[in-house]
Amino acid sequence: MIMAERIHLYDTTLRDGAQTQGVDFSVSDKIAIARDLDALGIDYVEGGWPGANPTDDAFFADPPDLANARFTAFGMTRRPGRSAANDPGLAGLIGAKCDAVCMVGKTWDFHVDVALNIPREENLELIAESIALIRERKGEALFDAEHFFDGYKANPDYALSCLTAAYAAGARWIVLCDTNGGSLPDEVERIVRAVAESIPGGNLGIHTHNDTENAVANSLAAVRAGARMIQGTLNGLGERCGNANLVSLIPTLMLKMGFETGITADGLRRLTQVSRGLDERLNRAPNRHAPYVGESAFAHKGGLHVSAVEKDPTSYEHVDPARLGNRRTIVVSDQAGRSNLLARFREIGIEIDARDERIGDLVDLVKRREYDGYAYDGAEASFELLARRALGEVPEFFRLQSFRVIDERRWNAKDELVTLSEATIKLDVGSQSLMTVAEGNGPVNALDIALRKALLPAYPLLEGLRLVDYKVRILTPNDGTKAVTRVMIESTDGHGERWSTVGVSANVIDASYNALHDSISYRLFRAGGATAHDRR
């Protein structure tokens, strides 16, 4: 049996990913993410740059125990004018609790001349001496060749001399960096192939940025040319436009190109969970259109597509979603036919005869409601409730009598402009009639708080429910302020499960209430409608 070639995976989420705008990892975040990467089967987990900031210092002072990955520190080659043994930056790397060290160094003659302002030969000494010291003290040294592709295009001989200096000094991996993300796949493949004539592919890595939307393609081009290590981040996090997305690269390498990685079949089935778990930690909605792991990656909307998928999934699915921990989704919309509904029913556990006349009625209902502005292809929870209500399976958990929302905008005693929203809601829960009042940050938030304030005594499991996304779309823009609006709400139970609901009305608060009502009803239905008396 011919063994597949091995590709090594190096994750830089905890450093490169932390440079993403809006991302700020705490020490506990870093520990949790490192453990997820280790359990996935990543070969190297880069923890950050010891000495760069208090968070990285605390993380490296007590790093997590990893079973599979080599925990790696990042830094730079020694400074000019200092010996490697007396460089404080290298001392910090040597003192860090880690299994390997990756150092960045200059390989573009322009940077050596202008940024470092030293003779080019001296830069070669910086690289060689730094690698040799780290290899001696830590056991494994990696060299990140900064702006390598720009440097190679400008002066290939000098750029290669930087690589050979690191390789001769004992670097395990020579990583070619497309630091500004400007290279294209044909350039990357040609240049990596040329480098592989001097340095074995088993020692070559690739590190790409996504500024031309080619980070994944460039990484694969480098692999085709001989590189056997890829650096990247979860979900493509990174500064500017991001880094190569390991979540897309891993299944492509394994399922499309036949390479072996440190990730097993069981590990691959964790991929969707790890990807969405990172987004959950960052408190942001996962990209539903993400390749392989997005909710829409294996979603089928047109009736003809669904019929074909039912007979032969491979006709419209390039891989089995279950291999990635994802699932097929049959979308219900105004393009839907009976096959869509039957497939969706099977997916959510509804057993019904294919000849049941109620199916045709439900198809007509979906089409009428979508004509009115509802969109069920992005609100799966609302569709499930619609279908189960039509089949008489959803109880009435509570009944609204009325609600009122008041918005106030005024100057307070400190001459500060303040806005305040207050919601009053009356509803029936079982035999009880309740009224609650709540203030919130905007009318929808106030309504949400008031509604759950009334329901929590009867349904304590709603305590963990929260809204994580809220979208409003104007459906009739020519009507101005009288326009019909569609509200989409995404909710979570606080334990990783998310669902989406939809509401439509000429009044945006009423549309919001409709979506809120569905969100709460879905949570209660999925939990079996547990009350304070039978479940906590």
Automatic annotation (TrEMBL):
Pathways per UniProt? Amino-acid biosynthesis; L-isoleucine biosynthesis; 2-oxobutanoate from pyruvate: step 1/3
Q: What is its EC number?
A: 2.3.3.21
Q: Which CDD domains match?
A: DRE_TIM_LeuA3
EC category name: transferase
Q: Which residues form the Pyruvate carboxyltransferase domain?
A: 7-269
Under Gene Ontology molecular function, one entry of this record is: (R)-citramalate synthase activity
Q: List GO BP terms, alphabetically.
A: isoleucine biosynthetic process; L-leucine biosynthetic process
Which top-rank group of organisms is this from? Answer: Bacteria
Entry keywords, A to Z:
Amino-acid biosynthesis, Branched-chain amino acid biosynthesis, Isoleucine biosynthesis, Transferase
**Reaction catalysis annotation:** pyruvate + acetyl-CoA + H2O = (3R)-citramalate + CoA + H(+)
Please state which protein family the record places this protein in.
Belongs to the alpha-IPM synthase/homocitrate synthase family.
**What is the protein name stated in its UniProt record?**
Citramalate synthase
Species name: Skermanella stibiiresistens SB22
